[in-house]
Amino acid sequence: MKHISDVEVLALAKLLEMENNSLALAKTSIMAISDEQLKSLAQTGIQTTENRITGLEKFISENILSSSTANQPQMQ
Predict the structure, then answer these.
(1) Residue 72 covered by a domain
(2) Residue 28 falls within a domain, yes or no?
(3) pLDDT at position 72, please?
(4) How many Å apart are CA 26 and CA 61, to the nearest integer?
(5) Fewer CB within 10 A of the end CB, N or C, for the chain?
(6) What does each C-alpha distance from 2 to 7, 11, 47, 66, 68 come to in angstroms?
(7) Among residues 68, 47, 57, which one has the least CA distance to residue 15?
(8) Cβ 24 vs Cβ 49: under 8 Å
(9) Which domain holds residue 59?
(10) Considering its fold, how many domains does the chain have in total?
(11) Domain contains 49
């Protein structure tokens, strides 16, 4: 597990927010695309963005959430 600074946590949160906004826009815009080749490229971009979001969420879960729970006092 890596130590993640507060600035890095903020940057990751903003990056995840940007990716989610981009995904929402791409999913909305794809309905307006009539060219099949362009639509296929857009769908590939959507899948790639979804994979990046999944990767970011996994990284956050493994490196930030687990370290914050590890630092909490345990109840007995």
Answers:
(1) no
(2) yes
(3) 52
(4) 26
(5) C
(6) 14, 16, 28, 11, 12
(7) 57
(8) no
(9) 6-65
(10) 1
(11) yes
Three-state DSSP at 64 gives: helix
Q: Determine, yes or no, domain membership for 76.
A: no
Measure the CA–CA gap between 60 and 66, rounded to whole angstroms.
Answer: 9
The per-residue pLDDT for range 20-73, each reduced to its tens digit, is 999 999 999 999 999 999 999 999 999 999 999 999 999 988 888 766 555 554
Give me the helices (H) in 1-76, please: 6-29, 36-60, 66-70
Decide if pLDDT at 15 tops 70: yes
**Nearest Cα residue to 49 out of 75, 1, 17:** 17
Q: How confident is the model at residue 3 (pLDDT cuts 50, 70, 90)?
A: confident
